[in-house]
Backbone:
């Protein structure tokens, strides 16, 4: 099966900067409990929040009080609050018990001078985020909700699926709620799509993995819905 770059498929899979953990002595390390706010909406910290363990969620707060999940930050990735923009109300929350390290602009510049590879990894991480959000914008403009969900499942199979006993297994914990947040499709529609795919014996989903029984039929279904 063809493999492609998966760093922009899911909003928690951005290019990791593993070497930055070698410089945490230059930053400020803190621990947060699950559900605890790390950066409040409107709070200016002028730092990045580098994840050592756990997981963070990064959401934008709208003026009407609604929140939109933008992405997750897993270990060796980060939430960027170094360059805050006006009216950009970002809420960073620990989704799990998490340990993070705060780095300021001055600390990062010193690290980049010491290790050019860390700088290159930062650029690659930013590029993977740009790729993800460009992809999301394209999907929203070009495809209807059902096609967006089917395309996500198809791309996950191409990038993370493993062939086991003539089926493809995607070993990833991806809830219907998470798929709804990623694609912008209502969770009721997500549930109906998975029901159809299971009924048609194309794929089925459990808590910990997605099993694709017939990848070719999944592709055909995408093409069919694109014509509607």
Residues:
């Amino acid at each position: 099966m063809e493999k492609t770059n998966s760093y922009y498929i899911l909003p928690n899979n951005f290019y990791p900067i593993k070497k930055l953990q070698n410089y945490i002595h230059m930053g400020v390390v803190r621990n947060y409990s699950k559900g605890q706010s790390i950066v409040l909406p409107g709070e200016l910290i002028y730092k990045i929040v580098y994840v050592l363990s756990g997981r963070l969620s990064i959401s934008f707060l709208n003026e009407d009080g609604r929140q939109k999940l933008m992405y997750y930050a897993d270990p060796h990735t980060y939430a960027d609050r170094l360059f805050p923009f006006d009216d950009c109300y970002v809420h960073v929350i620990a989704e799990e018990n998490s340990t993070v390290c705060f780095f300021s602009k001055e600390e990062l510049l010193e690290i980049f001078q010491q290790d050019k590879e860390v700088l290159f990894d930062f650029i690659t991480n930013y590029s993977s985020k740009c790729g993800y959000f460009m992809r999301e914008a394209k999907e929203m403009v070009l495809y209807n909700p059902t096609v967006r969900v089917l395309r996500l499942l198809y791309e996950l199979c191409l990038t993370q699926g493993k062939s086991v006993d003539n089926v493809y297994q995607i070993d990833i914990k991806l809830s219907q709620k998470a798929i709804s947040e990623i694609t912008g499709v209502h969770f009721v529609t997500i549930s109906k799509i998975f029901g159809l795919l299971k009924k048609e014996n194309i794929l089925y989903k459990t808590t910990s993995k997605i099993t694709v029984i017939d990848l070719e039929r999944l592709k055909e279904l995408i093409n069919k819905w694109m014509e509607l």
